[in-house]
């Protein structure tokens, strides 16, 4: 399925540890708040700022990531592997809560800030894949992972109503 190798310093320096399954609290394995670079083999992983997969998040797709970025450097507390099928992604966005108003089906990375749908989305249904939803068109600000078969009737619940500007499906890793 895949694995993530974490390193205590940037550029894959210092101590390292390999994970092949989710870990809700890196304190349990003496790796809390000390990750600065990662390598991912296979499926993507999501790194979270707090335990139990909460707080700010970063997505790491297959490849080498020599620095996790200033916002998350030495702040990662939980790791979760994406296990869903990521082929043929599809999400439906709705203008209003409870899947009301104008709807739009998305199947590829989309910068909503360049069109009529910027900051107008209030709910979604994920048909296939896993999606990264972002507050800003550069992928910054509040980020949310929308998983396959998730129906989120109101972005108010996650303090994201009318803030979506960019979304993209997560990319599948190679099969091993």
From TrEMBL:
Gene3D superfamilies: Crystallins (2.60.20.10). The keyword Nucleus does not apply. GO terms for biological process: lens development in camera-type eye; visual perception. It holds the Pfam family Crystall. The keyword Repeat applies. Residues 2-42, 43-83 form the Beta/gamma crystallin 'Greek key' domain. Keywords: Repeat. InterPro entries: Beta/Gamma-Crystallin, Beta/gamma_crystallin, G_crystallin-like. GO terms for molecular function: structural constituent of eye lens. PANTHER family: BETA/GAMMA CRYSTALLIN, BETA_GAMMA CRYSTALLIN 'GREEK KEY' DOMAIN-CONTAINING PROTEIN. Belongs to the beta/gamma-crystallin family. This is Beta/gamma crystallin 'Greek key' domain-containing protein.
